[in-house]
Amino acid sequence: MKEESDKRKGMKFLGILDIQNTPCARESILNGAGGSVVAGLVHFLATSRVKRSFDVGVAGFMLSTLGSWLYCRYDNAKLRVQQKVIQDGIKNKVIYEGTTLDPTRKTRGDA
Amino acid sequence: MAHPTQLGFQDAASPVMEELLHFHDHALMIVFLISTLVLYIIVAMVSTKLTNKYILDSQEIEIVWTVLPAVILVLIALPSLRILYLMDEINDPHLTIKAMGHQWYWSYEYTDYEDLGFDLYMIPTQDLPPGQFRLLETDHRMVVPMESPIRVLISAEDVLHSWAVPSLGIKLDGVPGRLNQTAFIASRPGVFYGQCSEICGANHSFMPIVVEAVPLEHFEHWSSLMLEDA
């Protein structure tokens, strides 16, 4: 029960995004933070403009987080579809194995 | 069911509700990013030393804040429309149940094979056995077989009601003289609670909905018992 209540609390960024319990959220935020630091640093090293580099860093955070989020969610969705197909396949195999409806059963020519 | 002080959704008990949860996470991430951007812009505006009042021909920013919202809306709209049409699919249901709203109880009819019908009244708080849920328990339950597509036809006998079960991702109005159709698949066994979601009089808050998903053989046994009692 304590583990369940700990899981449910989570950490909410800006009070809305539950990082711990939302799939792909943590990875996206971390990738976004990394992208932000890289983008801001590269811009500063190239131009020596501090304020504009901060702006570029924030833009980098937006784009990196969004890109990482979309990629991870797409992979997640594909995985869920595959899991569903496998689940249905296992269920159908259990139900139909050995019967005439078994699709893996080889049909005999004289049957 | 909901736990005390809960703010978010209940755990999904149907594939449609799972998709809704995923869409909600997606929309919330976009909202989070927009909020972060707005917060940063506010801080930048407050801390800037620039005070030029006559800013003209800001083509770049105009393009950015026209194109970016359009892109964001497309990113939200595409999955939203996908789920909208997914919720309307009725793929060869195994069972059809009619849910009729009355003042102030729900009645259910299973008329596919035999004529089975019963009413669900809320158990008053003073009659609740210890451990049961206040304002949610009923004397009978709408029992359905799990992992089977179930079609529910919802209507009402007197005034507007609404049949809602959050963990199945269903909310549909019961309108007198009209049949509204929805379908769901209960992915796991369990008891799922809901409450009437359209104001319908004095006891609107006291006509809950209880759906119990059980394996098929248990459902057959239950329906035989109910037919004997009828």
UniProtKB/TrEMBL annotation, chain B:
The chain crosses the membrane at residues 27-51, 63-85. Its main location: mitochondrion. Its cofactor is Cu cation. GO terms for cellular component: mitochondrial inner membrane. It is found in: Mitochondrion inner membrane. Binds a copper A center. One of its GO terms (biological process) is ATP synthesis coupled electron transport. It holds the Pfam family COX2_TM. Keywords: Copper, Electron transport, Magnesium, Membrane, Metal-binding, Mitochondrion, Mitochondrion inner membrane, Respiratory chain, Translocase, Transmembrane, Transmembrane helix, Transport. NCBIfam families: CoxB. This is Cytochrome c oxidase subunit 2.
